[in-house]
Design brief:
Belongs to the cytochrome b560 family. InterPro entries: SQR/QFR_C/D (IPR034804), Succ_DH_cyt_bsu_CS (IPR018495), Succ_DH_cytb556 (IPR014314), SuccDH_FuR_B_TM-su (IPR000701). Its cofactor is heme. Membrane-anchoring subunit of succinate dehydrogenase (SDH). It is a multi-pass membrane protein. There is one protein chain. This protein is mainly alpha-helical. The protein has one domain (about 20-125): Fumarate reductase/succinate dehydrogenase, transmembrane subunit (3 helical TM bundles of succinate and fumarate reductases), CATH 1.20.1300. Helices cover about 80% and strands about 0% of the residues. It is built from four helices and no strands. It starts with 18 loop residues before the first helix and ends with a helix.
Length: about 130
């Protein structure tokens, strides 16, 4: 059998887009976002140990629009990844594999992550 006769492996263009596929990709992306956000946490801790001037630099960045957007995105990624991790625990127990159930639990997780993020930021702003 020559290489021209072999069937081609399916790729993303072949698959029909589904919610579960999007949520899986989003889970991986939020995992990467959390890892990158941990660099910010390390910067904050190093600045805290480095003294008032270093900490003031980090605080100024965090208080700016870019810093707040990054922190907001990091917060959302944390809640999304947390909710999806719980969803995966149910899958590990053999529950929720039906397509309708898997799609619905994904929708619920997106709603949870948005509501939890907004609630946390509202509480933080109310306390400030």
């Amino acid at each position: 059998m020559s290489t021209q006769d072999r069937p081609l492996s399916p790729h993303l263009q072949v698959y029909r887009w589904q919610w579960t596929m999007a949520y899986s990709i989003l889970h991986r992306a939020t995992g990467v976002g959390l890892a990158v956000g941990t660099l910010y946490l390390a910067w904050w801790l190093l600045a805290l140990a480095g003294g008032a001037e270093s900490f003031a630099t980090v605080s100024e960045f965090s208080g700016g629009i870019i810093g707040r957007l990054l922190l907001f995105g990091w917060t959302w990624a944390l809640f999304y990844h947390l909710g999806n991790g719980i969803r995966h625990l149910f899958w590990d127990a053999g529950k929720g594999f039906e397509l309708d159930t898997a799609a619905m639990s994904g929708h619920i997780n997106v709603a949870f992550s948005v509501v939890a993020t907004l609630a946390l930021w509202a509480i933080a702003y109310a306390a400030a």
